[in-house]
Write a structure and sequence with these properties.
The complex is a heterodimer of chains A (235) and B (291). Chain A is mainly alpha-helical and 235 residues long. Chain A has twelve helices and no strands. Chain A has a single domain, classed as MetI-like (MetI-like fold, Orthogonal Bundle). The longest helix of chain A has 32 residues. Chain B contains nine helices and 16 strands. Chain B is globular and about 70 Å long. Classes of the chains: A mainly alpha (235), B alpha+beta (291). Chains A and B meet through helix 7 of A and helix 2 of B.
Chain lengths: 235, 291
Amino acid sequence: MFSYFYRKDTKIEMIDWNPILLSLKLALLTVIILLVISIPLAFWLSHKKSKLKSIIEAIISLPLVLPPTVLGFYLLITFSPNSNIGSFFSEYLGINLAFSFTGLVIGSVIYSLPFMLQPILTGFNSLPKSLSEASYLLGKSKRTTLLKVLLPNSKQSVITGIVLAFAHTIGEFGVVLMIGGNIPNETKVVSIAIYDEVESLNYANAHLYSGVLLAITFIILLLVYLRKNTNSNLL
Amino acid sequence: MLTFNLNKTHTNSAFELDVTFDLNKGDFLSIYGESGAGKTTILRLIAGLDAMHNGHLKNNDTIWFDSSKQINLKPQLRKVGFVFQDNSLFPNMTVLENLEFALKKGQSKSIVFELISSFGIEDLVNRNITSLSGGQQQKVALARAIVQKPSILLLDEPLSAIDDENRHMLQDLLLKIHHQYELTTILVSHNVSEIFKLSNKVLKIKAGKIEKSGTPKEIFTSNTNSNQITLIGTVLDLEYINEVYTILIQSNNGIVKQVVSKVEFSQYKIGELIEISLSGFQTSIQKVKIE
């Protein structure tokens, strides 16, 4: 088996760094967009008790349970120029969503939303209700209360959300394959590149890509846990 | 003057809250009653934190709530001072930052330094909230509630989790600031001696309705003879030494030892609330009747 992985005739080519950079770019953009969406959404959900809240929570959590290919399939249909949304984007904004980096970002945002939203929502819900009420009674708006009181006291939850969403986006495969395909410098992210290299029996390159991915994710998680444990020791 | 007629039907409880009362400027009202009687709800309705179904609420000439006119002022605009049972100080800020956060736009910081000095918290200003004791936290919470110089101060059992020594100190502080800042204060409390010490009016609430209202003496003592001095306290111990029966009572003024007859001795239990009356040279004790 060992020789199978390292066949003498396997040619180690110069590794193409673009898939790794593309993955990092996709994950970074996704995390930034998700932060902007998730913080106000979590704040709104933490204040709501209606049935609408349950429906929205259920929809947002769908990617947690759905196979990525199912989500990718529906997104592909939605993004295709034959659909209303796809044709709107291509006609009015000049953006093709299917098999493009923009489409990949939108897909990643939808796919990773619960991973960012849930920790932040849990963080907000775990704070005593009286904290935000005290802020309102001091004449502060909901926006000020969110930015000055709730967010600073939910730092750990926000960091958890960022890390989970980043790692989840870096590691996504099914959705990317369905809506992005394998276009170099456009949609060929590192997970696709690994699959591609394995398919071409370039195990050495697959090893390199996998090793880099493993190192990046391990370092991120290590930093988070180091920070978390240092903070808890201080308390 | 605060006028209120509060009406709310609790979805999870069997009773309907219906309370009507007037308060004059400078009044110190205590709300007393069993747990779940609706005491905290009254404070939350006045502050605008809970939704009311019917009624009206007016502070001087400003209508805060009127169901018939569909007026419901946001909590931000009512400008009441509110101290929660759990103090609700912001853990991400120091003591000074908590107080400065309470400033209105454009309000001078001088009030913060004035409060720091009158509350005697100069040593705490740069401390984190989590490093303060319960008593210190409530002191800061009280100071924060006063920063905007509210006309109404609402206190939801702020001293219930504080040890005796600090409680007495905070009660004194409460009285001082109530007069100093000419506040109208509403306190929810279970502590009869605290109510006696602080308030001039009491509302006794039962299942969402006013059962009794009046001065603390009218509410808690059976004898209103003005020639009497009355002390409310809790039985700490019952002792029988050298043929003498005594009861150790804790009141606001400290611990008092009272000699009683054998019959009286057998009537009281440790922890019971009693009233000691002094009329001329005669002292008598009796149970505080709280239905």
